[in-house]
Amino acid sequence: MFLLNKKTFQALAAPYMTEGAVIGYAKWQSFNAITSRTLLILDDQQLTILALNLFSTKVLQQKIVPLAELTKEHKDSVVGMLVPIRFIYRGETYRFQMQRVILPLGDWQKTFLARWQAR
Questions:
Q1: pLDDT tens digits for 48-67?
Q2: Residue 112, SS3 per DSSP
Q3: Does residue 56 belong to any structural domain of this protein?
Q4: DSSP annotation of 79
Q5: How far from the centroid of its chain's Cα atoms is residue 9's Cα?
């Protein structure tokens, strides 16, 4: 079993962070995913997807998705503890499942989801 560590995630996300960006931890559930563990970094212009290794200690792949180019974005209502995030970008479907609360990450999840729903 691995532990989610805010300090480790901040270090992994630091090279990709922009001013005003928020971070969320999610499970990548698409067929195009190379791993299921991801950090999502959202700012006003783009969504950065960082695919993490099994123990969430290393970035395996990074994708930048401009928010203006998202098509067929689904903003499902928040029901229960899991929130689906789905969209299509350049013909590929992306699907993530995010927990509303992960105690070691503090307000990260809540802040990320609020920004995602508001845009």
A1: 999 999 888 899 999 999 99
A2: helix
A3: yes
A4: B
A5: 12
Cβ count near 43 (within 10 Å): 16
Alpha carbon distance 116, 119 (integer Å)? 6
- Nearest Cα neighbor of 75 from 24, 119, 28, 20 is 119
Residue whose structure tokens are 């992994």: 12
The predicted-structure confidence for 10-32, as pLDDT tens digits, reads as follows 999 999 999 999 999 999 998 87
Tokens standing for residue 63: 């994708």
Could you tell me the CATH number of the domain that includes residue 75?
2.30.29.30
Q: What is the enclosing helix (H) or strand (E) of 26? A: strand 22-28
Question: 116: which 2 tokens?
Answer: 């995602």
pTM: 0.91
Assess contact for 39 and 12: CB atoms under 8 A: yes
Query: What is the domain count for the chain?
Result: 1
Q: Is residue 89 part of a domain?
A: yes
1 part of a folded domain: no
